[in-house]
Records
---
Amino acid sequence: MTARYAVRRLLQVLPTVVAIVLLGFLLVHIAPGDPVLAVAGENGDAEYYRFMTERFGLDRSLPEQFLTYGARLAQGDLGRSYVQGRPTMEVISERIPATLLLTVSALVISTVGGIVLALLAASRPRGWRDTVVTTGSLVLYAAPVFWIGQLAVLGIALRTGWFPIQGMTTPGRDDGTLARALDVAHHLALPALVLASQEVAAVARLARSGLLDELASDHVRTARAKGLSERKVLLGHALRRALLPVVTVIGGRVGHVLSGAVVVEIVFGWPGLGRLLVSSTQARDIPVLLGIFLVVALTVVVVNVLTDLAYASLDPRIRYS
């Protein structure tokens, strides 16, 4: 990888962000529903509705609204929430840590778990472990996240009582930093596992396929001929080169994880961006909707750029002009 490629790849982010802002603005504004009616209710008079329309700037044409929004956005201003009356960035920032904790935990679980399962399967191809991993991965990959979430709540949380059902913390509990962290981890465990379920299946299937291809390659046969143990061959020679497509999947599926987080947050009452997105959609809180759309889209773009830049560190054969 050259510095020239890295700079060119980073410069591509700007037009992508502009396109995202325009697309998000158009989608939110052409969606059915009247923000003024949703916020002010149905019992106001015409004068009050006119006042609210002017206050939100909805009396202007769509191009004028977009130019105003773009000018504010260039200054780092996402506007004010129609419902809460607070800066949109403040409203969103309160929810980002919860969603970040959930999604990062799910990605770590799915990555580590998927690679471990792939190693177990590839070490004994067509054996019972391989059959269990491939069959289980197929089932998990085909199962919708909301269905897995409901089964987890009904079959695990309610039946066993091992996990909390709703929320991020136990209400009214303040036992110090360590106890609070353990309480959050206890609430996080089941939602993170549910959100990671499809991703661990995708990583396991792809990593297994890559490992089997590498184990049949010439350089692995040479390593075996030198007398290296199967463990060293698997971990030291095959795994590194098999990780490249896994990185591609992880980077490309961050958006999928974030969309799944919306469902998981609703099922488990997790106080993140997903629940804020649903409530803002119901209330037609346009500034908050646009802010969430922008934050999520930027996250996906940045992760994909970082994924592209990580290729060369995993496979020195890759060179970009």
---
Amino acid sequence: MITDGWKILIPLGIIAFLSLQMCTGLKFAKVGERGKQLYEQGNYDQAVAELKLSISEYPENAELRYYLGLAYLRQGHMDSAMIAHEQAAEIKSDTGMDSVYSAVMADRAKKLRESEQYEAVHKWVDQAIKLDKRNKRAYYEKYMAKGLQLYYQGSKWELWDAIVAFGNASSARPDNPMPYYYSAKSYQKKDDKDFTNAIDQFNKALEHNPPDKISAEIKQELEDLKRRKKLYEDFWGN
């Protein structure tokens, strides 16, 4: 038989337990959210430190480990990022995060390509595609890096391979003018009398709204190509 005293103590115990749970939840939210906010703000060094601290308190929280991996990716530390990703997936598999990681990797690959670190691009895009085979941005970066590397190396056969790579890049992102632009440049470099292909690719680049500086260059190139094409055909009677 439960006495009146116990009738009072039992509800008080439940209230105390629930209060402890609420406080723990609030503490977790505060600690966990801080790391995620730092990541969203672009403070990746601080985000890593904060998220590692949170993980030490809540080692079974997959979301914190996923965010730690993303922060590592932004820093350029792929190996550490993939360890965090694997640890998170062991706790809670989340295929949606694979596509997020893949997108961040493609973004990193773009920065590497723009700084002409073509070899480094391949490592990032290969991993991005492994995580998400539908990531067209990753394929685009892969083929653009390959094409540009071959274009600048410049032998005749490498230029043919560059043109193929730029064609694959345009298939991945048909709305982007740059693969057409570099295809035209490759045709010019391969054979300065290959007017037709160069003109065709420059025109396709213009159709896809290139930046003003590139657009002005293309228009000048087209004018020069058409002039030289006419001179050549007049001279040879074609």
---
Amino acid sequence: MLTRYSGNPILVADKGSAWRDVKVYNCAIHKDSSNIYQMLFRAVGYDWISRIGYAESSDGIHFKVDQSAVLKPWYTWEVKGCEDPRIVKIDDNFWVSYTAFDGKTARAALTASKDLKQFGARKLLFRDWRYNARTQFTPDWSKGAAIFSEKINGRYYMLFGDSHIWNATSTNLIDWVPNITPVLTGRPGEFDAAYVETGPPPIKTDYGWLVIYHGIDTYDVSKTYRIGAALFDKTDPTKVIWRSKQPLLEPSEPYEKVGFVDVIDGGFDTLKKLTLEDLHELSKREKLPKAVFCCGAVKEHDNLIRLYYGAGDTVICTATVDLQTILSS
């Protein structure tokens, strides 16, 4: 349903840079009033620790990457990685949510910046979260926080979660109160039957808040991440008013179907031992999960939406779609 950029992927690992020499993926994006695109992306080096890098572009396609990571693990609760950033700008601050991983538990975290290169204090958002639907998760597992770009009825809103998607509210953008009732969940028999997870920060449209999310069809070894969409009510961002029946994007290109996919059985411990040839063989045998994963999207002009997505958990790609095309799905 989306039109892929013919030159995909637009960003790949750099073998000469230790912190991003294995893979780059799952990026956040901001486009300012002068049409400069600022990207935060997740990178993994051969130490298999995730860090967040910065890149900039004048056309949204060709990005210049800063030589050093801008957000690195600092606290014990993120010692194994800062992952999957999302960006929203409110007034003069960029609010960056990301996933903090300590090697066992993934937790939603938050920081702020004036320029997306220097960051202030970091905090975990939901220290006492106990409502995940997947029994194999640790009790306080939470991730995928995405903040709405403006106050609604006097409060800020956020979507977060994987397995289900929940919402949380705040009066100051720092302290967040979660709602334990999911606002979006899987649909039996659909592309998102087994699992849903938040995507980029919601985009305000004439029809409501456009929420792009990820869905998984099954939990077996051939599971596939696809990208779906929903509309949330303009004045009540806990209310879903429409949801796509078909995925907007699913892995079909070679660079989307084969890669160092995080959710392979055994995770990073397994990936460390695999070569690219091993991955191709697993793919042929339908034992390699497939993934397209989007943390960043911008409204280009009129109703054209540009998505930035990780493909195969290994490279970064982009694709565009008209809002009307999304709503026809």
---
Amino acid sequence: MIGKEVLKGLTAYKQGMQISEVKRKFNLDRIVKLASNENLYGCPENVSQLLKDFTVDFEYYPDGYAYDLRKEMARILQVDDDQLVFGAGSDEIITLICRAFLYPGTNTIMANPTFPQYRHHALIEGADLKEIPTVDGRHDLTKMAEAIDEQTKVVWICSPDNPTGELITEEEFKTFMEKCPQDVLVVLDEAYYEYVQPELQFSLHDTLAKYHNVIVLRTFSKIYGLAGLRVGYAIAHETVAEKLNIVRGPFNTGSLSQRAALAAISDTQFVTKMRTLNDEVKNEFTQFLDTLGWSYNESHTNFLLVHTPIDADDAANYLLRHGFIVRSGNLLGYPKTLRISIGKEADMKELQTVMTKLQREIDDGVFT
């Protein structure tokens, strides 16, 4: 069979069950998907209107440079145009980083567990992995720094982390960077950046000005509610961004996606509104979990990693049968946990009812 030898030990990404699939399987009329950390409030209103009215000559290729989006993002972020790289979600940019900087004989460092696509694409490029176990769901930055050697090309830092939601403080990050050689790239994956309280957010300008070996990843898939349109971006030093653009496909973000992202960032109140709503509902849900006796990791995102008293798959399947799709921690490297996205208040209250019923069945010894 033709193909890279490493592919024999890898599998394609396995997504969770989709809403239509669950409806058919369990004969349910209503399903709430809380498995993929999407913003269930949707996108800004001006984007919804754009999608209704949008007209474009689809026979033409999209703007490969993403000129309008690039100019506006550079203005907002206060960076140069050439420091930006756009992709079909930040997932694609992870692929570009591995393609540009990793190859056989090199190694890359990451936490374990963390977002699995770092590992997946690094292996495809033939790099060796140095996976440093997390401590209580947090990156062990001290040991990650100690693992760097002459063959290390890329270090991955996910903050807030997926799947735990734990945040690396700016002081912790600076301490790590002082130990990291300047010729080693550090990818700071901030997919959930906008959900972090402003006083805990890093200064992008200061970070990039001081550390030319940092690549910051962000996306429109999370708080902006554009997961289906696939627009992510990286901010990096011009020399790093140039290499990523060399390996990037020439038309990798569509015309509609670019216009939607441009419209989304023009709604300056949307992010604050979504972050406030998310925190309110998340706080109510954590109070419920405290009452139920289920623990969870501290989260600075729109999801919680919840620790379960039973096997994660059993818990996830129970919720599935009752109309809620969540992510089993067995798939994420954290057994006996569920990753639960924060949905709308009414949905989360309904979920509380189902979880209370589950705990009662466990207590009564009738859970199956």
